Amino acid sequence: MFKNHITDIFFDLDHTLWDFERNSALTFEKILDQNEIHVNLDSFLKVYVPINLDYWKLYREDRITKAELRYQRLKKTFDAIGAQISDGHIDLLAQEYIQHLSTFTHLFPDTVEVLEYLSPKYNLHIITNGFQEIQEKKLKGANIDRYFEHVINSEDAGVKKPHPQIFHLALDRAKVSAENSLMVGDSLEADIQGAIAVGFQTLHFNAHNEANHKICPMINNLSEIKGIL
């Protein structure tokens, strides 16, 4: 399936190993309740999830700052559902969301089983656009930090996936060539196409029920990796 021998596997974290949407929902359930903001959680999340993805794309493209991302995704969601929430409350919620998000530790099914299977055979690493202080807490909280030799984040690299520089930094840290490396991630644009441009082999984890494509192999469950590698 892969044209070159693979020695190193680079994983995305959110939406690939760490179940972002589930943990995010639990975080909002907690902080909305604590702040006595009475909105229907399901209705809130239905609007928030696509807005968050849109704002992450803007952030990835350096069109907004981290502060704008954290504020605007909440502001737009509350406006869309007709909830009158003050800027002060939005700022507080944005802060509490970051504080509590990494305390929830749900992983995608079979994550630990697959990492246990891969770790004796390959060098494993993380490349993430997430914020450094939170990603480290996520890995440790979910007890999977021990599997990864290097964790490369966009704040450390100074650029975000799909920029080639973050992938080159990852290769330099791991001391491996791109042709012997595999990138596994959920984002076709950031993870897959970004890695391909640098020469990685790639595997698309279809976490968002996207249409089939021929860009690279695609899996719908992490356990399928055991049948490939």
Quick synopsis:
The chain is an alpha/beta fold and 229 residues long. Helices cover 48% and strands 11% of the residues.
How does this model look, in words?
- With 229 residues, this protein is of the alpha/beta class.
- It has two domains: 8-19 and 107-227, Rossmann fold (3-Layer(aba) Sandwich); 20-101, Putative phosphatase, domain 2 (DNA polymerase, domain 1, Orthogonal Bundle).
- Helices cover 48% and strands 11% of the residues.
- The chain is built from nine helices and six strands; from the N terminus they run βαααααβαβααβαββ.
- The chain has helices spanning 20-34, 41-60, 66-80, 87-101, 111-118, 132-141, 154-157, 164-174, 188-198, and strands at residues 8-11, 123-128, 150-153, 181-185, 201-205, 218-219.
- It has a six-stranded parallel beta sheet with strand order 3-2-1-4-5-6, with helices on both faces.
- Strand 2, helix 6 (132-141) and strand 3 form a beta-alpha-beta unit.
- Helix 1 packs across helix 4 (87-101) and helix 2 packs antiparallel against helix 3.
- The longest helix has 20 residues, at 41-60.
- The N and C termini lie close together (9 Å).
- The model has no long low-confidence stretch (mean pLDDT 96).
Topology:
Layout: E1 8-11, H1 20-34, H2 41-60, H3 66-80, H4 87-101, H5 111-118, E2 123-128, H6 132-141, E3 150-153, H7 154-157, H8 164-174, E4 181-185, H9 188-198, E5 201-205, E6 218-219
Parallel strand pairs: 1-2, 1-4, 2-3, 4-5, 5-6
Helix pairs in contact: 1-4, 2-3, 3-4
Protein name: Noncanonical pyrimidine nucleotidase, YjjG family
Organism: Flagellimonas algicola
